[in-house]
Amino acid sequence: MSIIFKLLGCGGANPLELKISFLGNIGLKDIESMFKPILDDTEISNIKFISNQITFKDSTIIEIQSDKICTIYVFTTIDEIKIKLLKLFNLFI
């Protein structure tokens, strides 16, 4: 039904959220393509995407079911990438 991306480690007690509609299987390449408009390949490779205590790797696939919401946590330690992600997430508040 939908995915909620939660941005971690960018200040504040509550992570910023970005909600998108999605149904079906999703993998790392699908997630990365959603962030390509604002980040290059090197920046994206420095981001961890985590759902249900699983860090997405090339082979990770999860199913987004029609009756459930999937939460994917977005985390990086690089300040320049955090700034770009904050701008993206703030656009959708």
Key phrases:
two-stranded antiparallel sheet; five-stranded mixed beta sheet; 7 strands; Ubiquitin-like (UB roll); 93 residues; 28% helix; alpha+beta
Strand content: 35-45%
Give the CATH superfamily: Phosphatidylinositol 3-kinase Catalytic Subunit, Chain A, domain 1
Strand order of the largest sheet: 2-1-7-4-5
- Termini gap: 20 Å
Tell me roughly what share of residues is in helical segments: 25-40%
Spell out the blueprint of helices and strands.
Layout: E1 2-7, E2 16-21, E3 24-27, H1 28-35, H2 41-45, E4 48-51, E5 54-55, E6 61-64, E7 69-75, H3 79-91
Parallel strand pairs: 1-7
Antiparallel strand pairs: 1-2, 3-6, 4-5, 4-7
Written description of the protein model:
The structure is a single chain. The chain has 93 residues and is of the alpha+beta class. It has one domain: Ubiquitin-like (UB roll) (Roll), CATH 3.10.20.90. 28% of the residues lie in helices and 35% in strands. The protein has 3 helices and 7 strands, in the order βββααββββα. The strands form 2 sheets. The protein has a 5-stranded mixed beta sheet with strand order 2-1-7-4-5. A hairpin with an 8-residue loop joins strand 1 and strand 2. It starts with a strand and ends with a helix. The mean pLDDT is 90.
